[in-house]
Structures are given as C-alpha cells and as structure tokens.
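[Discussion] Sanity-checking designs against the backbone

I'm trying to build intuition for which residues belong where. Below is a structure token string of 339 positions. I'd appreciate it if someone posts a full sequence so I can compare it with mine line by line.
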C-alpha cells in the first residue's frame, strides 16, 4: 500500500507495524528518518541484541536478506531486518527480484522488513508488488522544491516547540540549500543553545551557525534586486575578503537561479501575482526580491546578466583567466549587472 511520512509516524507511535516497508526516492532525509525510527522503537534493548539485523545492499545478496527475514525471533514476538542502501543490491538479475517477490507474497508475520532505496525508483516489478500488497507500505521521499524550503523550515522548528522568524528561516535555506539533513543538523545546534521561549532570529543564526545577517547571499541578492549600488558593493567587498565562506562557486549558481526566474517572469503573458507565484514557484517569503528585479532589469538586461554569470563561472574555473582572483571577478560581475 502507499502511505506518507506523517501517517506512518502516527502508526509507529501506536506501535502498529507492517510486515514490509519500502522507503524510496530522491530525498534521503525521510528515508533515514523513518528507518532510524524503526531501529530505535520496534524492539527493546534486549531484543535488539538477538532480533535486529542491519544489512547493506552492496555487501548483501537477495538470498541472504530473505534468509534473515524468514527466521523466527530468538527473544520476544518480532524481529527487525533493515536493508540500507538497497539500490546497491544487484536487481538487474531476475532471480534476485523473484526472491523478493516470493517473500512479499508470503512474508514472515513475526518479521518487520525495511527496504531503504535511495536516490532512485526501485524496479517496476518490485514497486508494483509492494504497492499492491496489504502487508506492506511504500513511501516515496521526494525532493523539496526551492519554494517549499522556508515553509518546511518553519514547520520543522514549530514541531519542536521552538519558533523562528521568516527571515531567519530564509537565511538558513539560502545558506544551506535544500539539503534537509544538513538543515536539520544545524537546527539541532540552535535547539541546544537557544531556549524555546525565545524566538530564533537573524542574530541567533549569525551567532550559532555563523551566517552573517548583513553579509550573506540572501542580502546580496536582495540588494542586487533593488539595485542598491552601495550595499551591493559593500557585500561584494566582504565576499572578496572572505572567499572561503563566500565562494564564487556558491554565489554564481544562486544568482543564476534567481535571474533565470526573473527572466521567466518577463516571459509570462499573465503577470498577475497568483500567476507569477505559481509559474515561477515563488513563495510569500521571497516574492518581493523577484518583483524588484523584474521592475529594475528588463528582459534584455536579464539575458545579458545570465550570460555574464556563465562567463564569470568559466573564468573562475581558470579558462582564459590566469591572474584574476575570485574577488576581482565578483567586482567585475557586479559592475556589469548594476551599470
């Protein structure tokens, strides 16, 4: 059967476990979260010593997995078998898939089998069998879109009893991207150092995670969008002095993605706010920057900026550039964008 993360967590908390779970997809965060919850809570400490087996796809065979799964628990009522990195098992061999299909049809009632299949979709036969079986649950872990990230961070923080400002959430996303595991790890640092009754703002982010509230890619992008020449050059100067923390190879992709969406807005026949938010996948948190850039840079200028970003990236890699450092390349890029 098909399920979702939230529903399964509720089932787990009620100690309601199926015979087989398949966690798969491009986003490893939820796959790890669900499988870790099961390894922590299905068995007690004593039962884990005898009844819990964690295998890895690269080091295991399908017959080994099935043999473990068919065993009876040595202590207690059930055993747990977890196959991590299942995508590394050789499923090109029909015999391996057939072994699993046979087990799916008649699973061991006292076993909870967990298959963790990361970054891709399992073979169609296997997925179909697990989705159609009443004794199994399949959960697809999809990548979060960029426009979903600030809201996801707000929800994650709220679920722990903490609170965070919209800008602080956006700073985290702009700095860490859509790597959910990395973001969750950084949030964990904040929870340890920051009391629940106090809101997490930009100052807290700067203090405990090291993201400057004034000199970061988020503020840089905002200043460029507003065509604030003084602030853009101040931040560019800071980036040039601190290339380790503010690499061009981080700045250019962010600006490229930003101006690509601005160009998309220029191309839309319907420029109403709902249309722009939907087509460009913008959020309430970042829409103003895009609208500022749309007003301040016409379509031809935006096309030129995208070209300059590509050129700057190539030169930063050393092509046709033997002496200009990243700081100077950034200053040159900023001059072209603004003037």
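Best answer:
Here's mine. Compare freely.
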């Amino acid at each position: 059967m098909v399920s979702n993360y939230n529903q399964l967590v509720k089932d787990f908390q009620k100690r309601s476990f199926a015979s087989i779970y398949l966690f798969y997809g491009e986003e490893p965060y939820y796959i790890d979260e669900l499988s870790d919850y099961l390894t922590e809570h299905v068995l007690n400490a004593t039962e884990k010593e005898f009844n819990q087996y964690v295998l890895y796809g690269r080091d295991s065979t399908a017959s080994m997995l099935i043999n473990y799964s068919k065993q009876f628990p040595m202590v207690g009522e059930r055993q747990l078998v977890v196959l991590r990195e299942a995508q590394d098992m050789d499923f090109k061999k029909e015999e391996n898939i057939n072994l699993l299909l046979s087990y799916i049809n008649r699973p061991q009632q006292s076993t909870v089998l967990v298959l963790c299949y990361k970054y891709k979709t399992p073979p169609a036969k296997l997925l179909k069998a697990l989705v159609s079986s009443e004794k199994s649950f399949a959960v697809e872990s999809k990548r979060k879109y960029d426009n979903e990230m600030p809201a996801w961070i707000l929800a994650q923080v709220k679920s722990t009893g903490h609170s965070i400002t919209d800008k602080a959430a956006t700073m985290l996303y702009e700095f860490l991207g859509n790597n959910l595991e990395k973001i969750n790890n950084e949030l964990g640092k904040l929870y340890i150092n920051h009391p629940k009754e106090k809101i997490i703002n930009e100052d807290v982010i700067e203090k405990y995670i090291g993201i400057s509230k004034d000199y970061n890619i988020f503020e840089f992008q905002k200043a460029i969008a507003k065509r604030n020449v003084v602030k853009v050059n101040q931040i560019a100067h800071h980036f040039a002095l601190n290339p380790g923390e503010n690499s061009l190879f981080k700045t250019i992709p962010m600006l490229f993605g930003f101006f690509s969406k601005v160009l998309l807005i220029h191309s839309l026949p319907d420029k109403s706010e709902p249309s722009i938010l939907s087509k460009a996948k913008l959020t309430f948190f970042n829409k103003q920057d895009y609208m500022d850039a749309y007003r301040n840079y016409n379509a031809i200028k935006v096309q030129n900026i995208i070209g300059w970003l590509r050129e700057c990236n190539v030169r930063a890699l050393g092509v046709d550039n033997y002496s200009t450092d990243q700081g100077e390349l950034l200053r040159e890029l900023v001059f072209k964008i603004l003037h």
